[in-house]
Amino acid sequence: AAWLRPLLRQELVEAARPAAEAFRAGLIDVFGGSGDTCPLLCLLGADDLLELWGKGGVCRQDVARWRAVARVSRVVERQAEWLWQVLEEDYNDELRGKVLQFSTGSSSMGREGLQAFVVEPADGSDERLPTAMTCGNMLQLPRYSCRAVLSERLRQAAEDCCSFQMA
C-alpha cells in the first residue's frame, strides 16, 4: 500500500501538471494577468467556469427558448415542427447539444441563450442529410417526408459532425 500513494500522485497530479500549466498560461494570455493570477477568472466561481467550458448539451426546457428565437421559412414549416418535436421528445440532452453544435458551433445555450436561429430549406429529400451554416445559426432541412426520417438524418448529421472535430 505504500507504493500506491506515490503512484497515484504521479499519475493524477504530476502527469497532469504540464497540461494544467499550459492551460493556465493560455487563459492568462487570452484574459490578461500575470504569473498565476488572472483577474477576470478570479471573479468567476466554479459554477460559472463549468457554464463557460464544461457544460454541453441542451435540456428539454431550453428547446422552448431555442424555438422562441427561431425564424422558420414557410417552405419547411412542417419539417421545423417535426424538428421541435424530435428535440423535445426523442433526443436526450447530449444529442440536443450535438444538434445545436452542428447548427451553431456551440453545444450549449449559455446563460444568455440563443439570440437568433434560422431554419431554411435545403435541396433534396429523404436521402439527404441536413446542412448548417454555423456563422448564421442556420439549419437547412430538406423536405423530409416524415418525422422519423428527419429524426434519423438529423441524428446522423449531428453525430457525424461532432465526431469529426480536430483535437
Structure report:
The protein contains 8 helices and 4 strands. It is α/β, with parallel strands linked by helices. α5 (60-68) packs antiparallel against α6. The model has no long low-confidence stretch (mean pLDDT 87).
Give keywords:
167 residues, alpha/beta, 4-stranded mixed beta sheet, 54% helix, elongated
Rg for CA atoms: 21 Å
- Count the beta strands: 4
| Beta fraction | 5-15%
- Main sheet summary: 4 strands, mixed
Determine the fraction of residues in helical runs and give it as a percent range: 40-55%
Unreliable stretches (pLDDT < 50, length at least 5) are none
Q: What would you call the structural class? A: alpha/beta
Strand order of the largest sheet: 1-2-4-3
A few lines on this structure:
The protein has 167 residues and is α/β, with parallel strands linked by helices. It contains eight helices and four strands, in the order αααααβααβββα.
How are the secondary structure elements laid out?
Blueprint lengths: L3 H11 L2 H15 L7 H4 L3 H9 L5 H9 L1 E3 L4 H14 L2 H12 L12 E5 L9 E3 L4 E4 L5 H17 L4
Parallel strand pairs: 1-2, 2-4
Antiparallel strand pairs: 3-4
